[in-house]
Amino acid sequence: MTDHQLSTTSPEKSRADVVVVGVVQTDDGPRVAPGGEAVVAAYGEKRFAALVSSFEVTGKPGTATRLPTETLKAGTLLLVGLGPADALDPESVRRGAGVAARHLGNVTSVALALPAEDADHVRAVVEGFELGGYRYRRFKSDDPAGGSGSALSSVTVLSPIARKKEAATAQAVGRVVAAAVARTRDWVNCPPGDLTPPVFAEEARDAAPSGRGSRVEVTVLDDDQLREGGYGGLITVGKGSAAGPRLVEIAYTPKKPVAHLALVGKGITFDSGGLSIKPAGSMATMKSDMGGAAAVIAATYAIAELGLPVQVTAFAPMAENMVSGAATRPGDVYTTLSGRTVEVLNTDAEGRLVLADGLTRAVAAAPDLIVDVATLTGACVVALGNRVTGVMGDPGVVDRVLDASGRSGEQMWPLPIPEEMTEKVRGNSKIADLAQHNTERWGGALYAAAFLREFAEDVPWGHLDIAGPSFNDGSAWGHVTPGGTGAAAATLIALAEDLAERGVDGVTED
Ligand code: BES
Ligand code: MN
Ligand code: ZN
């Protein structure tokens, strides 16, 4: 267990193994960031400038320089780049703290002397540091207990407001948010054979905050119940798998809610494409196709742990999209939970089918707004790349989501749902009510969103396509480690915080 502290101690007096200080870029070259001034004073301006210059410390984001020191009480000074001085904000601090966590070396204690002059920055330091230090070790045989593998026993955030209640709160909230993101990463990183829908549903149930005061209730529907209940999308997608589909429903009911938020997350535990099978290269990372469900579940539990006065009803439709003699064929027609029929034209466009049933359930819960999260389309990755989430839906909801992403630090960008897409969804099937898939490939993310909108009915709705950001198949950057990233979890929590503060005014605006 790592001990977490807050302290007003000056960094040059800290006795931690490592003291972390930020460096920003200015027109006059690199300069120490707020929080590190006393370190410069301890060295003397000139000596510090010489050190910075000889070790080529630039302040560029992503850079870290470890220096042994006899000037400070600590044994090592770690300088991390925070980017341009005039763009310094909680997100650059969050990323810098993540870089620091990845460059600590094998140490037992660290003091973070990063910019932490207000609560938002304290929270960013905590979130970034916790997430940068994330490791997935469950399947490493040298650590069968699944521990972090780190020797770190003490983390101290140095802050001028360390003694204020708001700093302690920010630290606590930051740890809850980081834990939710880490839990999302754990689920995404788990091998698909070890996280089939029944296993995922059980793990979701087990992860619920416990105790009578938690106000969280979890319900799981199994394949028989789904068949009887008319969940055509989940059944159709899950038919080819030896492991049956599940629907996890989570209800968090605070005492005096100021808003009711419904969440729906895509939970395809593995996406082979089905009979419209994926090429091997595209299939390799498809264990990540349940990242939306993982984010929605983890965020709902975090919102409950924080005790936010926002009622949350979350739905995680889970299925494995596989190939077998029993699998759905291109050309098959099924009846959705909403009663409308859908012609399946490409079994690899499975996400929208399970989400449709989830959305129908969400509508029935009569929330103020619905937000769904899904690794939905490669087209969204083509449009926005690997780090930016596409946000679609009703303008009032899209605005609130984008606003929340500004505070969580996750990059998101709005995309439209053009009328022509809705016309095709409704008109392109010759035999069913709706066409699942567009025969024309252009604008695939928008067509998928138009299809989903049919099921959100008249409830204010937003859709997050996280196909790119949910999985990092490159190397670490900032606090984002390789593998599952936990995309959207922090933004959903930030959205609930915002609803708690401002209510639902404006969500129905267009
Ligand atoms: N799970 C994929 C989308 C995806 C792509 C997620 C890349 C993460 C990274 C989804 O089920 C899918 O296969 N979508 C198809 C839709 C197409 C058949 C209309 C796609 O994007 O190619
Ligand atoms: Mn697919
Ligand atoms: Zn998929």
Please tell me about this protein's structure.
- The chain is an alpha/beta fold.
- The protein contains 16 helices and 21 strands.
- The protein has helices spanning 37-43, 45-54, 90-102, 119-132, 165-189, 197-206, 223-229, 232-238, 280-283, 291-305, 351-364, 378-384, 395-408, 419-427, 444-456, 489-502, and strands spanning 3-7, 18-26, 29-32, 64-68, 76-84, 109-113, 154-158, 216-221, 246-252, 259-265, 267-271, 310-321, 333-335, 341-343, 369-374, 389-393, 412-414, 434-435, 461-465, 471-472, 483-484.
- The strands form four sheets. Strands 8, 9, 10, 11, 12, 15, 16, 17 and 19 form a nine-stranded mixed β-sheet that branches.
- Strand 6, helix 4 (119-132) and strand 7 form a beta-alpha-beta unit.
- Helix 13 (395-408) packs across helix 16.
- Bound molecules: ligand BES, manganese (II) ion (MN) and zinc ion.
- Ligand BES binds at residues 271, 289, 346, 348-351, 375-379, 381, 437, 444, 467.
What labels describe this entry?
binds ligand BES; elongated; binds manganese (II) ion; 510 residues; nine-stranded mixed β-sheet; binds zinc ion; 36% helix
